[in-house]
């Protein structure tokens, strides 16, 4: 591994690596708290916490060749939400927003955003990525945690699975919608020289511990229309 493990922003879409990630049901839903605290200190040390955070690696789809997962943002009657769904590579300009560490290829993009979701975070190179990669490998967490572009401060997202294999939808909210949820993204802050771990996104679970699906009535209120099943 070189001292400048790059974010592979210009690499072609990595659907095969995406499909190798554990599904939501397969992934461990209780990652080690001590590791998150250590990661917070690492991010703050390199001043990376303003733009990046950590995500619990998981997937909700199986991507076909030349398809990528794309997040887009919308507002409907005052409700801010993002939708993540599979799209053909090359349909529109995209910015990588989540990365998986691969020991041979560095940090590979797993998900993308549209430019309307925000400006691209600065590319982090050299010591930060090298130390992050070493930490993940040493602690056997490279299949548990991914590097994620941080959302705007103050925003918390509750994510639901969409029916018909249509991806996911995340609603901006004050806190988790229910007690039955899995934290899937964290941001880091520094206060009084102390590293603080902040939960920023959850996957909501239903009574069977599966990823919750919103009702069609709820989706209709957001103006979300789903393609008919094939």
List the helices and strands and how they pair.
Layout lengths: L14 H6 L12 H13 L6 E5 L10 E10 L2 E10 L6 E8 L3 E8 L13 H12 L6 E5 L6 E6 L6 E6 L7 E11 L2 E11 L11 H6 L9
Parallel strand pairs: 2-5, 7-10
Antiparallel strand pairs: 1-6, 1-9, 2-3, 3-8, 4-5, 4-6, 7-8, 9-10
% residues in beta strands: 25-35%
N- and C-termini, Cα separation = 44 Å
Care to count the β-strands?
10
User: How is the main sheet built?
Assistant: 10 strands, mixed, barrel
- What is the total domain count? 1
Give, in spatial order, the strands making up the sheet with the most strands.
1-6-4-5-2-3-8-7-10-9
Q: What is the tally of helical segments?
A: 4
Summarize model confidence as the mean pLDDT: 81
Task: Describe, in short, the structure shown.
This protein is 16% helix and 35% strand.
Protein architecture, described:
The mean pLDDT is 81. The protein is globular and about 45 Å long. It has helices at 15-20, 33-45, 127-138, 216-221, and strands at 52-56, 67-76, 79-88, 95-102, 106-113, 145-149, 156-161, 168-173, 181-191, 194-204. Helix content is 16%, strand content 35%. The chain has 230 residues and is an alpha+beta fold. It has one domain (15-221). It has four helices and ten strands; from the N terminus they run ααβββββαβββββα. β9 and β10 form a beta hairpin. The protein has a ten-stranded mixed beta barrel with strand order 1-6-4-5-2-3-8-7-10-9.
């Amino acid at each position: 591994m070189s001292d400048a493990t790059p974010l592979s922003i210009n690499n072609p879409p990595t659907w095969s690596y995406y499909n190798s990630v554990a599904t939501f049901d397969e992934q461990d839903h209780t990652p080690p708290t001590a590791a998150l605290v250590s990661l917070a200190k690492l991010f703050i040390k390199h001043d990376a916490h303003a733009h990046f955070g950590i995500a619990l690696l998981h997937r909700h789809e199986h991507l076909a060749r030349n398809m990528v997962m794309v997040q887009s943002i919308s507002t409907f009657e005052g409700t801010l939400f993002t939708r993540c769904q599979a799209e053909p590579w090359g349909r529109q300009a995209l910015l990588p927003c989540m990365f998986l560490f691969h020991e041979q290829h560095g940090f590979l993009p797993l998900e993308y955003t549209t430019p309307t979701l925000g400006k691209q975070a600065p590319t982090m190179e050299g010591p930060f990525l090298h130390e992050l990669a070493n930490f993940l490998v040493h602690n056997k967490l490279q299949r548990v945690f991914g590097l994620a572009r941080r959302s705007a401060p103050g925003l918390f997202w509750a994510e639901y699975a969409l029916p018909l294999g249509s991806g996911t939808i995340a609603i901006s909210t004050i806190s988790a919608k229910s007690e039955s949820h899995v934290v899937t993204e964290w941001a880091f802050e520094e206060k009084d020289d102390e590293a603080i771990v902040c939960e920023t996104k959850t996957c909501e679970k239903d009574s069977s511990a599966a990823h919750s699906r919103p009702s069609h009535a709820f989706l209709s209120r957001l103006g979300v229309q789903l393609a008919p099943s094939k």
